């Protein structure tokens, strides 16, 4: 898993998410304002600041760049695996803990999220820390001091979850606890949470930023808590709705190569042990409740399901310790099928040679790992078999991600942005007409003036309308005035917008062109 840090720089920052969060961190570092989060210089309150803080710290220590923008997620992904290993060992035994760590370190979604600059892994890891601390604290043989210590870790992790993504950092763990108390019969857990010391610690960590940002920006609380939580969950205005089975279908590739054993792992947790803490039941409730919660939501994105994977890995690790040979061999067969399908696709699909070679490598890694796992399991070497599956699953994901780079490079417009950068001064206006290209702003290291565009910047532009231009007519007037004075200016736009403005006789020429956008300059 540590090798994941060595490949953080393989891909260009893919818009919109990777470019957006990298740019927010860059602006935070350069402005020195660690309270009011901004995107393109515009107030941006959709999410709390933990991810932006950590990326800005990465930039401060290592410089501004692609791998530095992803470093927080890379480190967080490794931390999640280590937490699962330690917790699995403490709760289910050493072998189950090792298996659980191998499982999580090779799950497609977990590996992919560790390489992707977005908020979802941060909240998954902080929630997993809360879950793991709770599991350790509630063990039947825990001393009073151990229970208090680990519950304080749990409360602190929930506070970080709140700062990572918002109210789900406390709503989801809280819902799981209530359901666990009701379904397991272990009502005593509610008295073992050390609320008297845990809640003050939670507030001490989570509350200061919310108070400070609200003091400086009185409009922030209503937008954050109503629009970004209540409306996102119950309304469809974010246009991210999907069918109720959205996450169940997505779980199939997301938990590869372990999906074949996942249902049995969750089902095995149903056995109750009266009078005792029941970690397996709590883990199963965690998985099911989170999936049901987001399935009911009107806003669905793949990353929302990431918090289930540490819990799923713990249950799978527990199950693998006692699984039959046939079950372990079935995992190898499934991976071989995936490798074979990928091999056929890579051999016969048209495309760039470099992409085809990477996909071939990913498919061969899957086939090699499947073969090694089969041979090891047949000889009774369960740990070697699981390690083979894990290594091949990790390599399969990494090589597949690397194969997306030609697409990502074209989507990001990084080459054009970097080429333009030396021509810009702090006073050179760069307009973004009809769209906002998230990654280009980061690669130019220069904010743009949005034209006839609001979308996710709508709320910030309502507060500071002078930071954008609402209409094409106003932009054209400003462009013509500066062109008449012979002063340099640039605009980013899609080809359709360029054709429209040419028809309206705007004096401009194509300065650079990419797969999706153009950069134009004054004549």
Automatic annotation (TrEMBL):
List residues of the Aminoarabinose transferase C-terminal domain.
416-521
Which residues span the membrane?
71-88, 94-112, 119-138, 150-183, 195-215, 244-268, 280-297, 303-320, 327-349, 355-376
Signal peptide segment: none
Tell me what topology the record assigns in the membrane: Multi-pass membrane protein
> What is this protein's name?
Phospholipid carrier-dependent glycosyltransferase
Cross-referenced InterPro entries, in alphabetical order?
A: Arnt_C, LipidA_mod_glycosyltrf_83, RgtA/B/C-like
| UniProt entry tagged with the keyword Chloroplast | no
